[in-house]
Design brief:
This protein has about 450 residues and is mainly beta. The protein has helices spanning about 1-25, 135-140, 185-190, 350-355, 445-450; strands at about 35-40, 50-55, 65-70, 75-80, 90, 115-120, 125-130, 145-150, 160-170, 195-200, 210, 215-220, 225-230, 235-240, 245-250, 255, 260-270, 275-285, 285-300, 325-330, 340, 345-350, 360, 365, 375, 380-385, 395, 405, 415-420, 425-430, 435-440, 455-459. Bound molecules: CU-O-CU linkage and copper (II) ion. Copper (II) ion binds near residues 442, 444, 447 and 452. It comes from Falsiruegeria mediterranea M17.
C-alpha cells in the first residue's frame, strides 16, 4: 500500500517538473509564496505539559510574519489543509474589495484541499494582522492569525522593533484548546474569555540595554477579551493606533485594548541593569508580567520621540454636509431586547438564543439583506453608534479607517476598531473611499457570530 503510494507520488512530481521545465519560460518559474492553513502543535505551557494542538498558518501560531516595505505588493496563496473551509482577512488594510477575505460577500470560502491567491499593494505603513474570517470564533481561537507589518520608507530610529502578539487562550487542564466554541453563556455575555493570557514576542526578546529605544507593536488577537496592559521600566509615547500614526504622540496611561486593536509605542528602557523591563496584563486576580525583558548593559538616553511619518490615508477636515446613519446595538444578557428579525422572521429573545443568536443592529440579527448604508465613492458619512447593551463592544469597519467625531467637533485618531463601553454613544465618520461591500461588525468574535454584523455598500 505504502509502496504503491510512494511510486505514484514520485511519478507525479516527476511529470510536473518535467512539464514545468519544458513549458515555462525561466522568469515565470518563481512561484507564489503560500500560507498553508493546517493543524500544528505549539508550546504554550511549561515543559511538564504537553504541547497544544492548534490550527495555524503554516501550522504556526502566530503564523509567519509578513513584512513589506510601503508600496511593495503582497501576494500569498492560501492553501487549505484544514478539515473545514477557511479564508484570510487582512485586518486594517486598504485593499480591493475582492481581496478582503469575507466568505459569502467578497469570495467563496476556500474548501479543504482548495486554494485562493490574495494579491494587493497596501498603501499605508503600520502594524496590521491577518486572520481567518470563516467561523472565526473557532478558527481565530485555534490560532489562525499572523502579523503583517508594512515598514515606513523612513522608519523611526530604534534599537529593537518588537511585535507583541497578545492572545487569550482557553485551555483545558492538560493544555488542550478547549473546544467549547459555542456556549450560549459566552455568546450572550462578554464572549468566550480564556484562562491563559499569553504574549508572543516577534522576534523573541533576549536582553535589552538600559536606555535602549524600542518600538513595541502590541496586537490584541484575542477573540473576545479586552486587555488592560501596562509597561513597567519602559517610558515613552504611543505613536500609532491600529497602524495609523498619531500626528501628536501620546503619553500612555492605562492601555485598554479591544480585540483586533493595535497600539504602537516608542519607549526607552528605564529599568536598571539586572532588572527586567516588563509588559504586564491586568487581570481579575492581579497584574501579571506577560513579557519580561532582562536589562543588561546600558547606553546613553536618547532625546525626544518624534511622530511617525504620516500615511496617505485621508483625514477628515469637516463633516458639515455628511449624512448621519444611526446604528443601535441591542441584545445580550441583561439587555432590553425582546424581539428582533432574523433571516426575515420576527423572533422572541428565547427563540433567538435557541438559534445561537443574541445581538441585533437596528432590530436585525446577523447580516441584513440591505446594507446599513449605501454611499457613493468620495462621500463622507457618519454612523452614530448607540450601545444599548450591558456589554462593551469592539466595532470594526473593513476596508478603511474612520475617525470618531468628538464632543467639541474635532476628530479622534484614525482607527479601524473602536472600543465602546456599555451604554455609550459614539459617532464615527469617514470618507467612503473604496467601492465594494464592506463589513461593520463587533470584533468580539462571539458577538459577531451571535448577530452583531452589518455591511456598507460603496458604489
Ligand atoms: Cu479582523 Cu471582520 O475582521
Ligand atoms: Cu460585541
Amino acid at each position: 500500500m505504502t509502496d504503491h503510494m510512494n511510486t505514484r507520488l514520485t511519478r507525479r512530481s516527476f511529470v510536473a517538473s518535467a512539464a514545468a521545465a519544458t513549458l515555462l519560460p525561466v522568469t515565470a518559474r518563481a512561484s507564489v509564496p503560500t500560507l498553508t492553513a493546517r493543524p500544528g502543535q505549539i508550546r504554550l505551557l511549561p515543559d511538564e505539559y504537553p504541547e497544544t494542538e492548534v490550527w495555524g498558518f503554516d501550522g504556526q501560531v502566530p503564523g509567519p510574519l509578513i513584512r513589506l516595505r510601503q508600496g511593495q505588493a503582497l501576494t500569498r496563496k492560501l492553501v487549505n489543509q484544514l478539515p473545514t473551509p477557511t479564508s484570510i482577512h487582512w485586518h486594517g488594510l486598504r485593499l480591493p474589495n475582492a481581496m478582503d477575505g469575507v466568505p459569502g460577500m467578497t469570495q467563496d470560502a476556500v474548501q479543504t484541499g482548495g486554494d485562493f491567491t490574495y494579491s494587493f499593494t497596501p498603501p499605508d505603513a503600520g502594524t496590521y494582522w491577518y486572520h481567518s474570517h470563516h467561523q472565526s470564533t473557532e478558527q481565530v481561537a485555534r490560532g489562525l492569525y499572523g502579523v503583517l507589518i508594512v515598514d515606513e520608507t523612513e522608519p523611526p530610529d530604534v534599537d529593537h522593533d518588537l511585535t507583541m502578539v497578545l492572545d487569550d487562550w482557553r485551555l483545558t487542564q492538560d493544555g488542550k484548546t478547549s473546544e467549547d466554541f459555542d456556549r450560549p453563556h459566552d455568546w450572550t455575555h462578554a464572549g468566550r474569555l480564556g484562562n491563559f493570557i499569553h504574549a508572543v514576542s516577534v522576534p523573541q526578546v533576549t536582553t535589552v540595554r538600559k536606555n535602549a529605544r524600542l518600538r513595541l507593536r502590541l496586537i490584541n488577537v484575542a477573540t473576545d477579551r479586552i486587555m488592560e496592559i501596562s509597561l513597567i521600566g519602559l517610558e515613552g509615547k504611543i505613536v500609532a493606533f491600529d497602524g495609523m500614526p498619531l500626528l501628536q504622540p501620546q503619553t500612555p496611561e492605562r492601555l485598554f485594548m479591544g480585540p483586533a486593536q493595535r497600539v504602537d509605542l516608542v519607549v526607552d528602557v528605564t529599568a536598571d541593569e539586572g532588572e527586567d523591563a516588563l509588559i504586564a496584563s491586568h487581570e481579575r486576580d492581579g497584574v501579571f508580567a506577560i513579557v519580561e525583558m532582562p536589562v543588561s548593559g546600558s547606553s546613553t538616553r536618547r532625546g525626544n520621540i518624534p511622530a511617525l511619518p504620516d500615511n496617505p490615508h485621508h483625514r477628515l477636515t469637516t463633516v458639515k454636509d455628511a449624512r448621519k446613519v444611526p446604528l443601535k446595538m441591542e441584545g445580550g444578557a441583561m439587555g432590553g431586547l425582546r424581539e428582533a428579525t432574523f433571516k426575515g422572521q420576527r423572533l422572541s429573545i428565547q427563540e433567538m438564543v435557541q438559534l445561537g443568536q443574541a445581538w441585533a443592529f437596528n432590530g436585525v440579527i446577523g447580516m441584513p439583506d440591505e446594507p446599513l448604508l449605501r454611499a457613493s465613492t468620495g462621500e463622507t458619512v457618519m454612523i452614530e453608534m448607540v450601545n444599548d447593551t450591558a456589554f462593551a463592544h469592539a466595532m470594526h469597519l473593513h476596508g478603511q479607517h474612520f475617525q470618531e467625531v468628538l464632543e467639541d467637533g474635532s476628530f479622534g485618531p484614525l482607527r479601524d476598531t473602536l472600543l465602546m463601553a456599555r451604554a455609550e454613544t459614539r459617532t464615527i465618520a469617514f470618507r467612503a473611499d473604496a467601492p465594494g461591500k464592506w463589513l461593520l461588525h463587533c470584533h468580539m468574535l462571539s458577538h459577531a457570530a451571535a448577530g452583531m454584523r452589518t455591511w456598507l455598500h460603496v458604489t
